[in-house]
Write a structure and sequence with these properties.
Elements lengths: L2 H4 L2 E6 L3 H12 L4 E4 L16 E3 L15 H12 L5 H10 L3 H7 L4 E2 L12 E4 L2 H16 L2 E3 L2 E9 L2 E9 L3 E12 L8 H8 L7 E2 L8 H8 L4 E2 L5 E7 L20 E4 L13 H13 L6 E6 L14 E3 L2 H7 L4 H14 L34 E13 L2 E2 L6 E4 L3 E8 L18 H26 L1
Parallel strand pairs: 1-2, 1-9, 2-6, 9-19, 10-16
Antiparallel strand pairs: 3-5, 4-5, 7-8, 8-9, 11-17, 12-16, 13-14, 14-16, 15-16, 18-19
Helix pairs in contact: 2-6, 2-12, 3-4, 4-12, 10-11
This protein binds flavin-adenine dinucleotide (FAD).
Flavin-adenine dinucleotide binds next to helix 2, strand 3, strand 7, helix 8 and strand 16.
């Protein structure tokens, strides 16, 4: 007898990241018998969530782990500015308001926090940092779930869902890559992430440029469950080309490189494309507000490659790189190692240096150190690149997660064709993030979407189970 036949579950949770565990824990605490199905093996469980470091949370607290208050209205303004306010604003407001309850919920479930460390200070006031990073955070949630009696199966891939007349009946699960089994439950919560690791799907959407994308996160986020839900009549939300994409070291692994592959030197120097030309204002805003647009900008360049140039004044002013920079005594020496047109790059740097205006460089504020009569301009942190040795990094678009997903309502119920909510199908996390993130990003909101909607989905699924049990 296989495990699925031994138990009759109330709530089936698909996925093993922050959204799934937040949902599973909540449903269990509300009395439901819960099963979590995670496609990954135990050693690499927890999807993109294991790569994370912090959460952006509205708070009035001025003591650690924060360095100051971050009122809800300020977070709301940040969200509107980053996304252009074109998402579902009711759902977005739920996330921003709900964020103020997340720290306590996490701590109640064993997660520990620490103050922001050097190099991350721009986010010290607004974001709470996990002690031990995302893996420690997720280990705590797994421990908490197990202690509560949530059942968890690894290497259990959901490959089909039986959905009829807006109602979930059972899931087909590929266990250990071979055995196909059916799992029935009274309600289901889909928390299986985006589709960024499905390179075929990415190519369908982006065309040939997708071949040059690197995927920062989990290899298992292939969008299988998202596709099944869409095929079974759930409404889609968002634009498939929209994703959180940051510039990462072009030498990084194709998948699962994680946070260390990110390069935060963009604001400190200039970035050129393979023709040796600049293409965007490197100093437009604080890096955490802007890093998510730079992956996309690199994706729009020829061959999806770009190169950051800095000098010895700034080499130690950003998160250390996992691969060493290429260096030289002249800009030409560095450009040559990248096979760039040396004369063009040298002219680009000369033009930039000439355009830099006097000012007091301060990387901790929008310092107004800018260029004059340069197109595109550099609006902040513009310093001459003139102190050897010079350094360069190759950049590729690093896809963090896709925004395209399933449409949900305030109760995390998925919306079916005809604008009706499903009876017993809920969704949380990346799989529905497109409702809130049509484009743009503010650092640390991904997990908040997962936790706030995960908890709602868990509550709603458990409440639905109760109504069914009472009616029986
Ligand atoms: C390098 C990196 C750093 C990041 N840093 C931060 C940060 O500091 N703060 C922040 O807020 N966000 C950060 N993010 C984004 C954040 O990881 C996500 O927004 C968040 O973790 C989403 O949680 P989730 O549970 O929806 O998805 P995931 O954590 O990706 O979980 C999806 C789960 O579904 C499972 N799954 C997929 N398909 C199936 C299937 N068919 N059957 C069963 N299981 C399946 C996967 O194995 C995985 O466990 C980062 C992402 C990356 C890649």
């Amino acid at each position: 007898m296989t495990w699925e036949q031994t138990e009759n579950y109330d709530v089936l949770v698909i996925g093993g990241g922050c959204a799934a565990l937040s949902a599973a824990i909540t449903a269990r605490e509300k009395g439901a018998r819960v099963l979590v199905l995670e496609v990954a093996p135990k050693c690499s469980r927890a999807g993109n969530s294991r790569h994370t470091r912090n959460m952006r949370l509205a708070h009035e607290t001025t003591f650690p782990p924060y360095t100051g208050a971050y009122p809800e209205e300020e977070m709301w303004e940040n969200y509107l500015k980053a996304t252009g306010g074109v998402g579902d604003l009711d759902l977005a407001r739920k996330v921003v308001s709900g964020s103020s309850t997340v720290l306590e919920w996490m701590m109640d479930h064993g997660v520990r926090f620490q103050p922001a460390i050097a190099g991350t200070l721009h986010l010290g006031r607004t974001n709470a940092w996990f002690l031990g990073g995302g893996k420690a955070m997720m280990n705590s949630l797994y421990r908490s779930a197990e202690d509560l009696g949530v059942d968890i199966r690894y290497e259990a891939e959901v490959v089909d869902l039986d959905i009829r007349e807006r109602r979930f009946h059972q899931a087909t699960v590929l266990q250990g890559g071979t055995e196909r089994i059916g799992v029935a439950a009274t309600a289901v919560i889909a928390a299986a992430g985006g589709f960024q690791s499905n390179l075929t799907w990415m190519k369908e959407v982006w065309g040939p440029p997708a071949d040059n994308f690197l995927i920062r996160g989990a290899p298992h986020d292939t969008g299988t469950v998202l596709k099944i839900l869409l095929d079974k009549g759930v409404e889609a939300v968002g634009d498939p080309t929209q994703a959180h994409m940051v510039p990462i070291d072009a030498r990084s692994p194709k998948v699962d490189g994680g946070i260390v592959t990110r390069l935060d030197c963009v604001t400190l120097g200039i970035v050129v494309n393979k023709s040796g030309k600049r293409f965007y204002d490197e100093g437009e805003d604080f890096w955490p507000m802007r890093y998510a647009i730079w992956g996309r900008l690199v994706a729009q360049q020829d061959d999806q490659i770009a190169y950051a140039f800095i000098d010895s004044k700034t080499i130690d002013k950003f998160m250390p790189s996992v691969f060493p920079a290429l260096s030289g005594q002249t800009i030409a020496e560095v450009a040559e190692q990248f096979n760039l047109p040396v004369d063009v790059v040298t002219a680009t740097v000369d033009d930039y240096n000439t355009a830099v205006q006097p000012g007091e460089f301060d990387h901790t504020v929008l310092d107004g150190c800018k260029t004059k009569d340069l197109d595109p301009p550099k609006s902040h942190w513009a310093q001459r690149i003139d102190e050897p040795p010079f350094y360069g990094y190759p950049l590729r678009p690093g896809v963090t997660f896709t925004y395209f997903g399933v449409k949900v309502n305030q109760h995390a119920a998925v919306i079916m064709e005809g604008a009706e909510p499903a009876t017993n199908i809920f969704a949380a996390g990346e799989i529905m993030s497109g409702n809130i993130l049509p484009k743009g990003y503010i650092g640390g909101i991904g997990l908040v979407i997962g936790n706030v909607f995960g908890r709602t989905a868990g509550e709603q699924a458990a409440a639905y189970v109760k109504t069914i049990q009472q009616a029986a």
